[in-house]
Every structure is written in C-alpha cells, then in structure tokens.
Amino acid sequence: VARLLRKKCCKVIDLKRFAISNGCVAGFDRRRSTKEIDVPMLNRKLKQHIGTRIENREPRIVVSNRDSRSHESRIPQSAIFIEGHLSHLLDFADIVVVLRCAPSVLAGRLRRKGWRRAKVAENVQAEALGIITFEAIELRKGGAKRGRAGRGRGLNTRSVFELDSTNAAAEALAENVLEIASGKNSGSRWRVGRISWLKDVTEHREILDLLME
Question: Which backbone phi and psi does 130 adopt, to 5 degrees?
C-alpha cells in the first residue's frame, strides 16, 4: 500500500527505517527476534524531522493503514503518510488507518514468510483482539484528557479507521486510504467497530490453539 501511495506522488515515511537510521532502537528482543524501539524518542525525532509544520498544522499526518484523482485533489500537497507497525503510537497523527486481516489468513501469510511460531502467535493474538486499534484509540483518549488539543483539532478518537485487507487488493486499499485522508464522506464506511473476527477464530481450530499459547 505504501509503495502505491508513493507512486501517486504522496510523501511516505517508512517508520522502521526512520527509527533505525535515527538511533531510536533501544535494544533487541531475542525471544521475539525483533528490535525494541524507543517510542517516545521516535515521536520526538520524527516531529523534529517533519519540522515546525506540525505546530502550524500545515500538513495532514496520516498513518497506516472510485476516481483516485478526485481523492488526491482533496489532499493537501503537504500531507505526510507514515507507515509502520508502531505508527499508531505517534501522538501527532491526524488520522490513523489500521489494516486488519482475518487471523486465519494472517497466520498463513506469516508462516510463508518463515516467521517463528511464537511470533506468529503473538501477531495473531493481537489481530484477533484488535490490539492496534485499541492502543490507537486509548492514546487519543488520553491525549484529549491531558489537554493535548492545543494544536488545533487535537487528538480525536474518531480519527481512527480500519480497513479489511483480508481479500482486498493493494490498489483498492491505497484508494481507501486516500479517500479517508481526503475527508470525503468522513470515512464512515471504515469507522472502528465494523470488523469482527469471532467467526473466523471459531471456525479455525489452529487459530484457537495459537490464541491459547
């Protein structure tokens, strides 16, 4: 999806690459075989990288995850798309788009990538429970309570959206992201709460096993 947004001349920041190149790696989790990112530092350095435009509310910061020209024309040229699995934890994002996937399909994709069972289980559990969406909403709830709305519109729990990527083509997902970012129809079709994996989980025993690990 990020690659397609770049093709449409959108500015896209790869969050993982940015974190590594800007010294935001705090360590390495051997059990999970993954780098540990210092999220507060990442927030600070990314704000500095983007510059004072954030304070002036010039760009629209969209994190992830029809007539395309009509959507693109409604998006400010200064809009910035940030992609990465930690992007929902950025406290200055105007919009958060979470790409969801049925746990049974996600497990298959991760296995084909050669991921360890423990890491597959962790990701399937997070997807089944909607952890990413929950964290994005909680951050915005907390920000609003602490008065972090001084930047203008401020943090808004209604600025979190979900796209079902289970059977969707990347091109369609990219168009959906652009439509949400453009503000057209306020993205009502992708409001949080429309996606449930209960049926998928109960119909696949192997997913239940992963959830129990």
Answer: 65, 40
